[in-house]
């Protein structure tokens, strides 16, 4: 089946689906009802017109029954005396010559054509009804009736009138009916739209409650909903509770694993420090690497459990201001200045600990290489439905001119300068954490001369 042009819109909106369905059936019913009413009115108009012509037939039959002394038959309407007026009568008998047929003056010597076999016949009276063309090629409504005058024989009385009168009445009725049904259709459309808007109001309320949970303004969906929607709200609340329980278990397991691994490692490190020699130094170095790897993968596991959770919203300003206060104390020898821009209203849709991890690594990396100035700027991206947060960290250090080298920096354990302290995991941790939040980290050349790290994360429209 060929898809409808409205199908994509209907699939995207319940309101459009309901409106299209309701309006389609409403207007279909109005059209069918209008057609039936017009047909009934036409039939009633034809019957009224036929009754009028039967009166003329009766008058002509009475004159014929009165005999020749009555004179020329008269239908009693002056229209029959006006030439080509559309109103005609004629009296004939079977086998009678045309010159002997009596006609109204309005026919001016012409005769009426006989009705065809498709004419309607009244079984009780024998009256035949139908349509024919008159002397001026005018469509006529025609009635024929045979009258038995005894010795006068059988006479066929034919009366015709202009069918335009029937058509005019039907046309006037159709126009009035169309105007009435048009106004009724507009009223139905308006009432349908209002009814849909009123009926879907609980769903809009449910959506607002979900937005509040997503933004961290509420822990669960509150409020009363119709019995059709209340089960959905209850199931969502159960899902939120289950999600929180899973997160708590994940946090506990990650903490237990960290404790279980780090305690034996600490014992090994302590024993290696007591001992002397190349073996002890090698054990200490490898233990340090193991601890860094454990920290890295534990952070990834914890972040994977927390990323994208409902209700986790973190303002950027407090986290950024905390680093702006502490990092200059760590790098006193550089007279470090950290400039914050666009912090007002910047919100990260995720856990505070993850934001601290990502920003801390980026700012620490910039502080290591800067000549003294680091800029952290928050920018808004995306749209109202899917807001994004761009955190841009720039420094005035030597930078990394080569684009391929900038891509290699974010690889796990890669360092371009082995003389600098560290494991080389910092930027890779940031990239992995960002990916868990469906974000990204890319490195560019900074406008102030050094390296620019652009962190793309899910934001929140405050």
Summary keywords:
462 residues; alpha+beta; Heat Shock Protein 90; 6-stranded antiparallel beta sheet; 5-stranded mixed beta sheet
Nutshell version of this structure?
With 462 residues, the chain is of the alpha+beta class.
Give a verbal description of the structure.
By secondary structure, the protein is an alpha+beta fold. Among the domains are: 73-164, no CATH class; 244-306; 314-458, Histidine kinase-like ATPase, C-terminal domain (Heat Shock Protein 90, 2-Layer Sandwich), CATH 3.30.565.10. The chain is 51% helix and 16% strand. The chain has ten helices and 13 strands. The protein has helices spanning 7-12, 14-66, 163-199, 201-214, 230-274, 278-306, 316-330, 352-369, 403-409, 426-436, and strands at 88-92, 102-103, 120-121, 128-133, 139-148, 154-162, 314-315, 337-341, 347-348, 373-382, 387-395, 440-445, 451-458. The strands form three sheets. The protein has a six-stranded antiparallel sheet. A five-stranded mixed sheet has the order 8-10-11-13-12. Strands 7-9 form a two-stranded antiparallel sheet. Strand 12 and strand 13 form a beta hairpin. Helix 6 runs parallel beside helix 10 and helix 8 (352-369) packs antiparallel against helix 10 (426-436). It is rod-shaped and about 155 Å long.
